[in-house]
Design a protein that fits this description.
- Helices cover 50% and strands 17% of the residues.
- Helix 2 runs antiparallel to helix 3, helix 9 runs antiparallel to helix 10 and helix 11 packs parallel to helix 15.
- Strand 18 and strand 19 form a beta hairpin.
- With 750 residues, the protein is an alpha/beta fold.
- The chain contains 26 helices and 25 strands.
- Strands 3, 4, 5, 6, 7, 8 and 20 form a seven-stranded mixed beta sheet that branches. Strands 21-22-25-24-23 form a five-stranded antiparallel beta sheet, sandwiched between helices.
- The termini are far apart.
- The protein binds flavin-adenine dinucleotide (FAD).
- The site of flavin-adenine dinucleotide (FAD) has 38 residues, from helix 12, strand 4, helix 13, helix 14 and helix 20.
């Protein structure tokens, strides 16, 4: 709330209180009483509405309560007051919750004492509300708003309100009803009895609530402190003062001020996990893309959500995947552009000086900046209960984290994958990097061997070579990027080799060892044995799903070594448990994890029937040039029964690509000859990933090749390659017969 709004609110409250003291409120009540009597049968309804309004506007309701007894007698008066008071209290509670709760939760988050109290009220909400309602010390109209600001759950509040207000309501209505009778005869002694009863009950409740709040809050605070101390004792890295590398599981960080910021956001050292709130609509294990999107989306729709992350929120993509790798790639491209300036008439006085440490620091700075989006605080503000710890199923409906049990209606496994370890003898002892450790480097290795020529291997091999390492890229396959269009992969290979990377295909790695102070890989290439000496080894041979220790058997969730088994709707063998992201998919991309998570929210919480198999999945390898693909490959389309035709446009015929000096590469589109529907495509170009969106849209919207031709593209752009493919398709429609008809028509018109 803005300060100006807070001042206005305070003025309004003071005005109401002053008004109550100085205005002729009693006379108004008398007038109102006469009016209600005149209404007959709808009188009680009007009193309910007025009671609600008074409650919301801070007008104490005791006078109306007694008045209701006088007007309607004990039974009707009692019902009228219970309805009016409870509905009014609920309105005030929801108003406070809707407008101010988020702000209060934000304050609570940064103040351990306040947070403990808030959590305690959340956990023991029913008891707290009941006792405060019984106690006469806490004013009814104010308390409704105050409770709305705490973590107490709405159903607990409603029930405790109803029960807690019954004695006092009964007493006051009884007094009113007795007064009505007194007009006919003297008051009986019961009034006095009930008055005494409510007084002593209220006194007891006051003592109980004070003792209870103090004890619970103290206990919660102690628990929070123990958790923090426990984390330190268990070696969870709180950043060290001298900026040494720090590790989270397998992830290594360089440990400078930017990494400190990353850790503050994604694994806050002083984080205290919330107290579990009853049953959750959704509990998510894993705080990578799939987990974050599931949790934020579900919470945004009003679900009670818990998110569990053992390591760094943001998962692979933020910490050791897309984000750092793309920053490194960008710096390496700057090096390449500086070196190839001569082609554009830019001559540097000397070779560009490459500051690898500065490039890595830039990466850490940007990663820390981006990490705000995935931060624990942000997710707490979104309404998600964030638990830092390892999640594990204990039965099909319960997950344990940090010694706490979270019951769920639906759960999502989003535990991702990690770098697979190749079974090479001696490799572990020789030492090697994976994506989890390579980004902590601050010194460039002179000679780098990269094992694995998939997207990660190729992207990093090219980048490190451009920085100045001598890189050898090894694969046991016949080619690099084996999942891609062969011609496109060949274009990428040509450029990587031009950059200076040595690519060895069909390699068997026999063993690894130390020799003369350097690392050696013992290879068989073809039939030839070869020793490859290097200073560092990067392993990028695929991904292994994170399944260990998850308690999947206890959850009755089936899995294989390839990951959690899911049906087309992302549901596991336990119908209450879903999975999303790398842990269950062959599409191991951030955007795939994101898309799957959105389907999971709809399917798990709202009976939707969205199928992952319906997703049109694009992907891109960010080498230079980039290699991007979407939809069917030619072979897959044929297997699926399409009569496939393919059109290819080289960038050497695209003006902008020539001007940019980026004429290597092509765009290729597959379509169905019968319907002309676009089925799939590959682009290999410097900005292929950016251009691919147009093809993805065409396939998702089930468009035909005509649309590529009729869409106007700005000139000169490289995306014109797709328009040219559309034009080429239109020319195929110009058969000799059609050409003849056109010629006749034009001749006739002359
Ligand atoms: C070097 C590299 C570059 C990449 N580049 C790209 C790219 O450019 N574009 C792209 O689309 N994709 C890229 N990817 C892939 C992308 O990072 C992944 O597809 C994406 O991160 C998958 O998200 P996820 O949520 O499924 O899993 P993850 O991001 O792996 O998150 C899973 C999380 O679960 C946590 N976890 C595991 N077990 C437990 C447990 N028991 N309790 C609590 N928490 C647990 C882990 O700590 C982790 O944080 C790249 C990957 C790598 C390695």
């Amino acid at each position: 709330m803005k300060p100006s709004n807070a001042i206005l609110l305070a003025i309004a409250l003071v005005a109401i209180f002053v008004g109550l003291i100085f205005l002729p409120v009693r006379a108004w009540f008398a007038y109102f009483e006469t009016y209600v009597r005149s209404l007959g049968a709808i009188g009680p309804l009007v009193v309910v509405l007025v009671y609600m309004l008074c409650t919301v506007l801070f007008v104490p309701g005791s006078a109306i309560t007694i008045g209701a007894g006088t007007l309607f007698g004990l039974t009707t008066g009692f019902i009228v007051v219970v309805l009016g008071a409870n509905l009014g209290a609920l309105c005030s509670f929801l108003l406070a919750r809707g407008f101010l709760r988020e702000k209060v939760a934000g304050w609570a988050a940064v103040n351990p004492k306040f947070r403990s109290l808030d959590q305690a009220i959340g956990k023991h909400g029913f008891k707290m509300v009941l006792l405060t309602r019984l106690s006469p010390v806490f004013p009814f109209v104010l308390l409704n708003y105050l409770l709305g600001l705490t973590a107490v759950r709405t159903p607990a509040y409603v029930l405790a309100n109803l029960l807690g207000m019954l004695p006092a309501t009964f007493l006051f209505v009884y007094i009113g009803a007795a007064a009505r009778q007194a007009l006919a005869g003297p008051l009986d002694g019961a009034t006095d009895f009930y008055q005494q009863l409510v007084k002593y009950l209220g006194l007891l409740a006051t003592v109980a609530v004070v003792v209870m709040v103090t004890r619970i809050a103290r206990r919660a605070l102690r628990e929070a402190e123990q958790q923090h101390d426990g984390a330190v004792a268990a070696g969870m890295p709180l950043l060290n003062a001298d900026h040494q590398p720090v590790s989270y599981d397998d992830i290594t960080l360089a440990g400078d001020e930017y990494d400190k910021q990353l850790i503050e956001n994604c694994h806050p050292p002083r984080w205290s996990n919330p107290l579990p709130a009853g049953k959750y609509n959704m509990v998510v294990i894993g705080g990578g893309t799939a987990g974050l999107v599931s949790a934020a989306g579900a919470a945004g729709l009003g679900a009670k959500v818990a998110l569990i992350e053992r390591n760094l929120l943001g998962g692979d993509c933020l910490n050791v995947g897309c984000v750092p790798s793309k920053s490194v790639i960008r710096s390496a491209r700057a090096v390449h552009d500086a070196r190839s300036g001569g082609e554009f008439g830019v001559h540097l006085p000397a070779d560009p000086q490459i500051d690898f440490a500065a490039a890595m620091e830039r990466m850490r700075r940007l990663r820390a900046q981006i990490s705000e989006h995935d931060s624990a605080q942000r997710f707490r503000k979104l309404g998600v209960d964030v638990f830092i710890g390892t999640g594990r199923f204990v039965d099909p409906k319960t997950i344990e984290v940090d010694g706490k049990r979270l019951r769920f209606d639906r759960a999502v496994i989003a535990t991702g994958a990690r770098a697979a370890e190749p079974p090479i003898s001696g490799l572990a002892d020789t030492g090697y990097y994976t994506n989890e450790t390579i980004f902590s480097l601050t010194e460039l290795p002179r000679r780098l061997a990269v094992i694995g020529a998939g997207p990660i291997g190729c992207e990093l091999a090219q980048s490190f070579q451009r920085f100045g390492s001598h890189v050898t890229l090894l694969t046991d396959g016949a080619e690099i990027l084996p999942r891609e269009d062969r011609d496109a992969a060949a274009v990428v290979r040509r450029q990587i080799e031009k950059d200076g990377v040595t690519i060895l295909t069909g390699v068997k790695i026999q063993s690894a060892s130390w020799r003369d102070g350097t690392k050696s890989l013992w290879l068989i290439v073809g039939d030839r044995p070869l020793e490859l000496s290097c200073d560092a080894i990067l392993v990028a041979v695929g991904r292994t799903p994170n399944l260990e220790g998850l308690g999947l058997d206890a959850a009755l969730v089936r899995y294989t070594s390839r990951g959690v088994e899911v049906d087309a709707r992302m549901r596991t063998s336990n119908p209450k448990v879903y999975a999303a992201g790398d842990v269950c998919s062959r599409f191991q991309f951030t955007h795939a994890a994101d898309a799957m998570a959105r389907f999971v929210i709809a399917n798990a919480l709202f009976f939707a029937r969205r199928k992952a198999s319906d997703l049109v999945m694009p992907w891109c390898t960010y080498t230079d040039p980039e290699l991007a693909h979407v939809g069917y490959t030619e072979n897959d389309a044929r297997t699926a029964g399409f009569d496939v035709a393919t059109l290819t446009q080289s960038f050497s015929d695209v003006d902008r690509a020539l001007l940019d000096g980026e004429a290597e590469g092509f765009a290729r589109v597959h379509y169905d000859k019968k319907s002309a529907r676009v089925l799939g495509g590959t682009i290999v170009a410097r900005h292929a990933g950016e251009m691919l969106g147009e093809l993805t849209l065409a396939i998702t919207a089930r468009q035909t090749m005509k649309v590529l031709s009729s869409t106007i593209h700005t000139y000169p752009t490289q995306a014109e390659a797709l328009r040219k493919i559309g034009d080429a398709y239109m020319r195929t429609k110009l058969t000799p017969a059609v050409q003849k008809v056109f010629a006749k028509w034009l001749e006739w018109r002359r």
